[in-house]
Amino acid sequence: MPIKDLPADCQPREKLAQRGAAALSDAELLAIVLRTGMAGKTVLQLADELLRLPGAGGLAGLLAASYQDLGAVKGLGPAKRAELMAVLELARRATAQPLRERDVFASPEAVKQFLQLHLAAKPHEVFAVLFLDSQNRLLALEEMFRGTLTQTSVYPREVVLRALHHQSGAVILAHNHPSGSVQASAADKSLTQTLQSALALVDVRVLDHVIVAPGAALSMAEEGLL
């Protein structure tokens, strides 16, 4: 069912025009992107089903979904999946732009939000590195290692090699805790020290190690753990 065929008081486009995008629910915003539902399923029902993808959990989880994950939703064909993936990628790139244009220290909250958007909803533990130039501007974000829900193997040599590849002056380390807690473990602290020592040999500074989970983020630098 197209949005235009919904009852007037259920049309997200009309609501957006009258009250602004912030007034819409996540499902209503998704419905505008999707435009149409399918036989037996309205576009709002399709949007709601997307937000309840197994292992995703809401809009944050949807941001971490792959093209293949979206295929699990009946009625979401290749064209709709491609459009949705494009919108999600634009959202990720929009959060990266300020970090590419100015010193990351100018907006530590933006760094946390950027990392939450990329890592927080993943069901497995991921270790990533933000490579920065000599002015602490973002050059690249790389997901370097993946692990289980409880641990991940991180190889300092690989981090050093990627830092040299990007000609980085500094890095920010990051990983997610699928458990939901963002407290730094003894292993997190030990790993940070190991990477600091390895990167110092090639004159690359570790500015921070950020731990993220859905709705939360911890900066080890702000906690005095670096």
Any overview of this molecule?
The chain is 44% helix and 16% strand. It starts with 11 loop residues before the first helix and ends in a 7-residue tail after the last strand. The chain has a 5-stranded mixed β-sheet with strand order 2-1-3-4-5, sandwiched between helices. The chain is elongated and about 65 Å long. It is an alpha+beta fold and 226 residues long. The mean pLDDT is 84. The protein has helices at residues 12-19, 26-34, 43-51, 58-63, 67-70, 78-101, 108-120, 156-166, 186-200; strands spanning 126-132, 138-146, 170-176, 205-213, 216-219. It has 9 helices and 5 strands; from the N terminus they run αααααααββαβαββ. It has 2 domains: 3-91, DNA polymerase, domain 1 (Orthogonal Bundle); 103-219, Cytidine Deaminase, domain 2 (3-Layer(aba) Sandwich), CATH 3.40.140.10.
Q: In CATH terms, what is the fold-level topology of the largest domain?
A: Cytidine Deaminase, domain 2
**Structural domain count:** 2
**Structural shape:** elongated
Helical region count?
A: 9
Proportion in β-strands: 15-25%
Please count the beta strands (DSSP E, at least 2 residues each). Answer: 5
Oligomer: single chain
Spatial extent as radius of gyration:
20 Å
List keywords for this structure.
226 residues; alpha+beta; DNA polymerase, domain 1; 2 domains; 9 helices
In short:
By secondary structure, the chain is of the alpha+beta class. Helix content is 44%, strand content 16%. The protein has a five-stranded mixed β-sheet with strand order 2-1-3-4-5, with helices on both faces.
